[in-house]
Amino acid sequence: QVQLVESGGGLVQAGGSLRLSCAASGRNFDAYALGWFRQAPGKEREFVAVISWMGGVQHYADFAKGRFTISRDKSKSTVNLQMDSVKPEDTAVYYCGMRLVGTDWNRGYGYNYRGQGTQVTVSS
């Protein structure tokens, strides 16, 4: 059974940093992309960043470029999101998602979410 378990959220001051981790298990992910998405109260879930498991190719939403870095650690089977220079508008529940690499994988479309998410709260 495929599992994606998010961790690392918390309360951080604006301008600070936070590192999220997604532990992935249950299958071989070589043909997959994994990524991070977020949902703020009253808003739809939105794409943050994705990475291909095999080649490590990364893609980011515009708001994440230059501040967030996605990475994967094959030895630990984790996908991480380093969040720097965080802003109050980054406050949201962050989810890990996965899908087969294919059309629009780099734009955050068609991802499946299996975890409960991790809350990130940025204070001003």
What does this entry show, briefly?
With 124 residues, the chain is mainly beta. The chain has strands spanning 3-7, 10-13, 18-25, 32-39, 46-52, 58-60, 68-73, 78-83, 92-100, 112-113, 118-123.
Describe this structure in words.
- The chain is built from no helices and 11 strands.
- With 124 residues, the protein is mainly beta.
- The strands form 2 sheets. Strands 2, 4, 5, 6, 9, 10 and 11 form a 7-stranded mixed beta sheet that branches. The protein has a 4-stranded antiparallel beta sheet with strand order 1-3-8-7, with no helix packed on it.
- A hairpin with a 6-residue loop joins strand 4 and strand 5.
- The model has no long low-confidence stretch (mean pLDDT 96).
Work out the strand percent. over 45%
What proportion of the residues is helical, as a percent range? under 10%
- Number of helices in the DSSP assignment: 0
Classify the oligomer: single chain
> pLDDT under 50 segments (min length 5)?
none
Mean pLDDT: 96
| First-last Cα distance | 40 Å
Order of helices and strands: EEEEEEEEEEE
Radius of gyration over C-alpha positions, nearest whole angstrom:
13 Å
* Backbone shape: globular
Total beta strands: 11
Query: Largest sheet at a glance?
Result: 7 strands, mixed
- SS class: mainly beta
Looking at this protein, list some descriptive labels.
seven-stranded mixed β-sheet; four-stranded antiparallel β-sheet; 124 residues; mainly beta
Question: What secondary-structure arrangement, pairings included, does this model have?
Answer:
Elements: E1 3-7, E2 10-13, E3 18-25, E4 32-39, E5 46-52, E6 58-60, E7 68-73, E8 78-83, E9 92-100, E10 112-113, E11 118-123
